[in-house]
Amino acid sequence: MRGNLAIARKKSGCDLMAIVKAGAYGHGLEDVARALESEKIAFFGVANVGEARRIRDAGVATRIYLLGATWAEERAEIVARDWTPCLSSLEEAGHFDRLAGEMNKVLRVHLSIDTGMGRGGFVPEHLPETLAELKKLKHLEIEGVGSHLPSADEDEDFTKRQFDRFRAIIAELGGPEVFRWRHLANSAGLLGYDGKWCNLARPGLMLYGVSPLPGFQDELSTVMSLKSRITLVRTLPAGHGVSYGRQFVTQRPTRVATVGVGYGDGYPRAVSGAGAEVWIRGRRFPILGRVTMDQTMVDVTGCEEIEEGDEVEMFGANLPVSEVAAKAGIIVWEVFTGITPRVKRCYFE
């Protein structure tokens, strides 16, 4: 992961906000935050107060940035613990200002601008007037401005226009010197576009070893491998169904390995019947029938050395997670964040 962080730093040429929301994309929030704390990251980006609290309670001191809007009842804790919110409305800003005043503090905040995502932030119209109103709030320090790219991995023309629009908005608000932090690029944005006039980038997926732009995949290193073991090996006769619904029926005597992993662990059931494979003893083997909640069956016919207890890679260094996602008709983000808590996380330097 540190190597992927170094690539993000080199490609962006600026400071980084490491995105660790959703349990660090399923990799383990506290462990990832502790691993990256020594890397001189400007911020950890989280989705909500619960994630911010977990990072702090793990003893990590790196600044925390809240990527979305906040509930009113959460804001006192945000002010008290000096977490950095992004502002999407004058009402939200006013509430933070009142709370900071009551605590005799000045809260550092960022201005969120909606340049196309449609999820949050101030719309660009009348931004100078909005900023003037915000500057009247004496207990807020507007130290940053950011926006979000909705389609940097799908629509190059729109994304280029979005970069240009964001730069024009900053100029309209008084220029880059008005804001200590200026950020727009996610992983796809920092890999594929020129955003050097920003001074903060927000890598997420690429930190975990997957490039949203395929042309950069070879530069990144795999971080997560999902592994299990074979619990049972049997030979089934021709005409024997495998798994629920008898979606697959053997056409010949078939040596079937049962693997102790299923959709209850987060391995996507949707790969069933889509030609998905696993990696055992240096080879690929096809999944048979439907993935069940706790077990997955694999055709190991012709490989007599495979036995109970053998390690099985469902995805990882030998079998890309992007391939599993494609077979399931979902995105890599969904695969990572879908790995359930019952799966033991093991960390290696």
Task: Reconstruct the topology from this structure.
Blueprint: H1 2-12, E1 15-19, H2 21-25, H3 29-36, E2 43-46, H4 49-57, E3 64-66, H5 75-80, E4 84-87, H6 90-102, E5 107-112, H7 127-135, E6 140-146, H8 156-172, E7 181-183, H9 187-192, E8 200-201, E9 226-236, E10 241-242, E11 248-249, E12 254-259, E13 277-280, E14 283-288, E15 296-299, E16 311-315, H10 321-328, H11 332-338
Parallel strand pairs: 1-2, 1-8, 2-3, 3-4, 4-5, 5-6, 6-7
Antiparallel strand pairs: 9-12, 9-16, 10-11, 12-15, 13-14, 14-15
Helix pairs in contact: 10-11
Report on the architecture of this protein.
- By secondary structure, this protein is of the alpha/beta class.
- The chain folds into 2 domains: 2-211, TIM Barrel; 226-338, Lyase, Ornithine Decarboxylase, Chain A, domain 1 (Beta Barrel), CATH 2.40.37.10.
- 28% of the residues lie in helices and 21% in strands.
- The protein contains 11 helices and 16 strands.
- Helix 10 (321-328) packs across helix 11.
- The model has no long low-confidence stretch (mean pLDDT 96).
